[in-house]
Amino acid sequence: MSEAKKLTGKTALVTGASRGIGRATAERLARDGATVAVHFGRNDTAAKEVVAGIHAAGGQAFAVGGDLSSTDYTALLNEIDAGFANLGVPGGLDILVNNAGISSVTGVDAMTPEEFDLLFATNVRAPFFLVQGLLDRLREGGRVVNVSSVLTRVAIPDALAYTMTKGAIDSFTRVLAHQLGPRGITVNAVSPGFTLTDMNAALIDNPDGQREASANVALGRLGRPADVADVVAFLAGDDARWVTGQTIDASGGTAL
Ligand code: NAD
Q: Which CATH number do you get for residue 141?
């Protein structure tokens, strides 16, 4: 089997895959041969574009929508099952990438309970209950990859609540790995540093801002979505079969 198709026959769900790191991850997993459920929150047009791009490159994918800050994932899970069935792919999931998330630069002084709850609902409760809903579908040898953040290691006071959500993701990763290990399922997290996505929209066409933000990055630039997606793909593949319960830094060496 060629290196480029190492995920042939696998199914994957990537949350928040209509743009940014999730999009790059869906595209990379599809390039590696996986059939990918491209999940989107609101922008079905963008998700359909991602799916069309994957098809054009010879891959298999479909779009599924759903607000992950809600509490009922029944419709989403049914849509995912139907999407794989429509493509003639056997039910069950090999790879779950919990990528969708929101950020916040509201420090403890100005944080409201509403914003705090939305952060935790989206970044923590959603991956937790998505895994719960998928427990029976995850196949032996499966992979769960959660997207954390370098901020769990680098303290930025204005990002306190956001950082707390990612700290929870690191704990989720370690403990879930322990639970799912006997089923041959690995659970890991990837911690991006500053990455050029809509989450950092102000930096995208801003060379001065990028220079400033990358001053503390050993590799001397900000991350691109594919820099992170490639690490997710490593964890999703067979080469990472003996790695579980870990949080892997993908920040170009931020604040070493
Ligand atoms: P992004 O804003 O481009 O993408 C976030 C995705 O999550 C979008 O597709 C969005 O629709 C989806 N999403 C958000 N809330 C949702 C909800 N309630 N329901 C369904 N989908 C929802 O940002 P990104 O940089 O690609 O972020 C991806 C992940 O990477 C996030 O978990 C983020 O916390 C993490 N991260 C990003 C950076 C960075 O610098 N960009 C750094 C560290 C970690």
A: 3.40.50.720
